[in-house]
Amino acid sequence: MKAIVKERPGAGACYTDVDRPIPSSHQVLVRVRAASFCGTDLHIYKWTPWAESRIHPPMVFGHEFAGDVVDVGAQVERIRVGDHIAAESHLPCFECYQCRTGAMHICQNLQILGVDRPGCFAEYVAIPEICAVHTDPALPWEIATLQEPFGNSVYAVTEAAVMGKRVAIFGDGPTGIFATAVARAFGATQIFCVGLQPYRLALLRHYAPDRIFDAAQDAPVEQILQATRGLGVDVVLEMSGAEAAIHQGFRVVRKGGTFVAFGLPAAPIPINFADELIFKGIQIKAINGRQMFATWEQVQNLLLSGRVDLRPVITHTFPMAAIDTAMQLLTGQEAKAGKIVLTPGAAG
Amino acid sequence: MKAIVKERPGAGACYTDVDRPIPSSHQVLVRVRAASFCGTDLHIYKWTPWAESRIHPPMVFGHEFAGDVVDVGAQVERIRVGDHIAAESHLPCFECYQCRTGAMHICQNLQILGVDRPGCFAEYVAIPEICAVHTDPALPWEIATLQEPFGNSVYAVTEAAVMGKRVAIFGDGPTGIFATAVARAFGATQIFCVGLQPYRLALLRHYAPDRIFDAAQDAPVEQILQATRGLGVDVVLEMSGAEAAIHQGFRVVRKGGTFVAFGLPAAPIPINFADELIFKGIQIKAINGRQMFATWEQVQNLLLSGRVDLRPVITHTFPMAAIDTAMQLLTGQEAKAGKIVLTPGAAG
Amino acid sequence: MKAIVKERPGAGACYTDVDRPIPSSHQVLVRVRAASFCGTDLHIYKWTPWAESRIHPPMVFGHEFAGDVVDVGAQVERIRVGDHIAAESHLPCFECYQCRTGAMHICQNLQILGVDRPGCFAEYVAIPEICAVHTDPALPWEIATLQEPFGNSVYAVTEAAVMGKRVAIFGDGPTGIFATAVARAFGATQIFCVGLQPYRLALLRHYAPDRIFDAAQDAPVEQILQATRGLGVDVVLEMSGAEAAIHQGFRVVRKGGTFVAFGLPAAPIPINFADELIFKGIQIKAINGRQMFATWEQVQNLLLSGRVDLRPVITHTFPMAAIDTAMQLLTGQEAKAGKIVLTPGAAG
Amino acid sequence: MKAIVKERPGAGACYTDVDRPIPSSHQVLVRVRAASFCGTDLHIYKWTPWAESRIHPPMVFGHEFAGDVVDVGAQVERIRVGDHIAAESHLPCFECYQCRTGAMHICQNLQILGVDRPGCFAEYVAIPEICAVHTDPALPWEIATLQEPFGNSVYAVTEAAVMGKRVAIFGDGPTGIFATAVARAFGATQIFCVGLQPYRLALLRHYAPDRIFDAAQDAPVEQILQATRGLGVDVVLEMSGAEAAIHQGFRVVRKGGTFVAFGLPAAPIPINFADELIFKGIQIKAINGRQMFATWEQVQNLLLSGRVDLRPVITHTFPMAAIDTAMQLLTGQEAKAGKIVLTPGAAG
């Protein structure tokens, strides 16, 4: 079959032939109908230090996708050939404390699809039955593939209980945009977004935050404090991983508020525990992945009910063969795409 | 001044002259600009057994209102003459365990405005400073007076954390209608409403629940279970106090779900603890009043941001002098009003 | 093999020969080393209406046990021959909403060991791998078998967060006694126990509650209110299922307190929603089973650390052959036993 | 009256004459019977950069004390002359969002007794009525004064819900020792303490943690991970403020665990958000002060019930006149005291 492969250490990737996977007894084989691009994939494509330390080429990468099941292993019971599924990319061990206490998304022996195991930028992918999530056929494939990253934001916003609250969202990447959509849907009454990239700040407008700040030009801390009469916001959703944003987040979160840490900084960040955390009496919730599978239920409720429409975030769709063209949108000085959807097959 | 007074035991009330109250050192005197009718007031007007056991005529009643401050007691510090305020109707003692641990809305020595102390269906009312809540002048008086009952529903829905959840709401009185509006605003993705009164079921439509059932004709339990594939709903908001509704609520709440008890039944209800509660592993949250004053913050956030528009619920406005005319709308076989707003003064 | 069998509808049970079970692919076969008696078993033995409606003889019953694994099915991965295990008696389906969202103990398709499937009052029992919980060999068999019922109480007390709180515990059966031990271990600072059976009230003393009331002679409500200066208790643990106890519980729980409903009443109980629940602003947590498997971790932490010693509750040990003798202790007017442990084999 | 006064910028303090305070209308005047020393007082005594930036000499300092009321302001209602009280040292404004929503301990305009207002190292001190907490006369003065710092630890441990859990406590100062006592009382089943000062590590033994590590000699991270089979602990209580301890805490907290931040580092600490927080999916609860007044209720429940005995932590008692002698115990290379209690009056 055809797949996008990191063939050897170094930047780039090939669209080439690999063996079609054979599902083991607990796996299902899925024909990929749509996949989507994540920041992690960009690390792999560009071969950043993180990728170098973690990825073992040759490797098919990609972990966001949806498709229909074409084969199932001998022990598979819940999934049938023909089912529409999307995939949870966190592959749990089932045996550790976390897996046995309702927290398998942070399994101690966690493996990630497309990072630790062959991924989904391919015509077919084999995944453990547990990670196959039934998807309503009413959901178009390009929306179904977004459930995984959208789930990150749904989990983050749910943990912050934004109902009737004031919220600041840092980060204009897809999870920041998704978080804005979810915060709006979940009843945040004042939403302040802070980002840096004009292309993506424009995408944010689709979800109608109350204010959008360009961190390069505006003074978001001062303006958020002013707009909240000095109180600050009840909730900060830090989806950027940027050092400046993290400090700004601690400045605008009100005393006793909640700071959700989702964005991954590239390096350690000096934190003033006394002034940024303790005297403020805040709580930090660090979010990784999505709850398996409570978040997925919410995701499907939101999408099927029409409460959130993800279509505005899909700015481009490419065949997998055009991976290099797609990457040019993301590797310039500024990202010129929202979510990029990849479909199997050769360029049109 | 003029006021609506329950002059003696028995049905009815008079619009008559009483002395204008003089604020004590911790009180503020408010000129009532708008008041609104609550089920409690109807009990007092009709002189039900509850009213007979609790109310000591002669007595000005009414507890929902908004107005501007015209005088303040010597020890008042936070409120100034001219401020626009609405009133928390729960008057706390400040000394009991609950008052000292952040739960003064369920004070052990709780007094209720218009029940235990002279109320607001009058040109002026004196209330403790603590219960005067600043209200943005941008809020019209007839909306400002609804903050108190709306707060009941905001508190109830907040406790149920409806974000991305399935919700059934029993009761088509104002708090049921408000709860529908709040559940929608806070991201419930499927909302089923169950009521009995055609006039009020029609009002519910303004808040766009997914389904509205007329309990007299439909089979809400079967239809809710069918619509949720047998699972049931994550959350039941029981705002009616009707025995049938309570049992229906226990049937449709899913295992592990949340049942919010707000409606006040007139008599004990036989509960099957094993089947209705324990084998289902549910939690019941009994809600009285509003959190002082976290709920009020949410209320103002919702109303000022425009996330919820309460105008459709106000079906009638009368001068206080027309109290008997107003009551005719509520005392027939079926309520023919949503929320009734009263304004001081003689009939047009 | 030998087993205790309900051979036909009606009171009593036989100690007789049945086929040794053969584990299916996901099951493990366990040699029972110790089992213990639960109220459910008494219903089956006495053939109460509940038993008649639920049990299909002939049937081996019993669901509390510990033992060592002697065989495993082909797909079993986590458990090995020779492992010491105790059993979770709730057999989940893995596919329903609850199973997929961390609440498999209240699975929609829940089956109970020894109720819906052949039980453990036998030399051998086959159980699903998921329900086999590794048990430290340092734990004696007769303690290991108590983990399941002790887990009920650990879950109930944990949900009530009794740390530094005042607690009233209703019910002097084993789960009431266990709850007293756990409440003590988890830092309840005032513990009031209410029971009816002198034999079991004496057992309670091993866990040093502050006060023990005999509901037949004392006035527990008045005395608890007096001892708490009229406030009432922060937490009620209702472990009895008795109507009088439930109403007493609602009277002594403070406004804003937590009422844990665990005991199963035999018939519906008339509840005054207004006075018992809503005006008090309480929450009710209905508890069934144990969290799978967070509670089991706590159970093992408590037992292995020596924080709780369950030995005083084991008042009798019988060979399974002596089932009728054992039952005489429980079927008189008053229970004359704490926990009865059964060991496989003929009477000494 | 006599008081300990920081007369001018620079190290040291004087025991000298100052005016006795006169209570304002909302204040009570208390005769100090016992006071106690906190790390904050040491900063003031030594005149560290923090003290220099915050304290305005001349100033009576000290904020932990108990005493009896000798006078009350005109508007005081809850407190009477003769009452035994201890003091909440956080003086709230009553008007900010936090004060009005049950979080006055993190008031936006918070003032601290003995820091922003004249303190309690004196014969008499005036405090706002709200901050006077009734104390059972059964509690000796030297225990009563410890309620405030003990409350820090009670709040921290309560937030971590340690019931049946594994806990690591960093810091051997009084709040670390108190936290150990509370974690034990609240049912932590494995407690690992990490400290640096032999004198204080010895004090820890009174509260029977499972293991005590001397960070200077032992390898606490490796040993805690080994003792928990690689899992780590459910809860970290960081009571030291030391950079090394914070990083060790992040290493030993299990995925999904809770990290309580209480100790105040002197400088920013570089945090690896990805590895220390996000991939672990932990939550951080930053704790300042005590809940007003839910924590105080727990404190009194613990002390009056005898569940926790604070006497072993009081290693020295001095008259206030001997302040310099007392300080020598704390200003050497290693602290040679637990909690130091000060009593009014001249040296013996």
**Biggest pleated sheet of chain A:** 7 strands, mixed
Structural class assignment of chain A: alpha/beta
Overall pLDDT confidence of chain A: 97
Total number of strands of chain A: 19
Polypeptide structure, described:
4 copies of one chain form a homotetramer. Chain A is an alpha/beta fold. Helices cover 28% and strands 27% of the residues of chain A. Chain A has 2 domains: 2-146 and 310-343, Medium-chain alcohol dehydrogenases, catalytic domain (Quinone Oxidoreductase, Chain A, domain 1, Alpha-Beta Complex), CATH 3.90.180.10; 152-286, NAD(P)-binding Rossmann-like Domain (Rossmann fold, 3-Layer(aba) Sandwich). Chain A contains 12 helices and 19 strands. In chain A, the strands form 4 sheets. In chain A, strands 3, 5, 6, 9, 10, 18 and 19 form a 7-stranded mixed β-sheet that branches. A 6-stranded parallel β-sheet of chain A has the order 13-12-11-14-15-17, with helices on both faces. In chain A, helix 7 (198-204) links the parallel strand 12 (190-195) and strand 13. In chain A, helix 5 crosses helix 11 (294-304). Chain A binds chain D through residues 96-98, 103, 105-108, 230-231, 241, 246, 254-256, 261-265, 267-274, 277-289, and chain D through 96-98, 103, 105-108, 230-231, 241, 246, 254-256, 261-265, 267-274, 277-289.
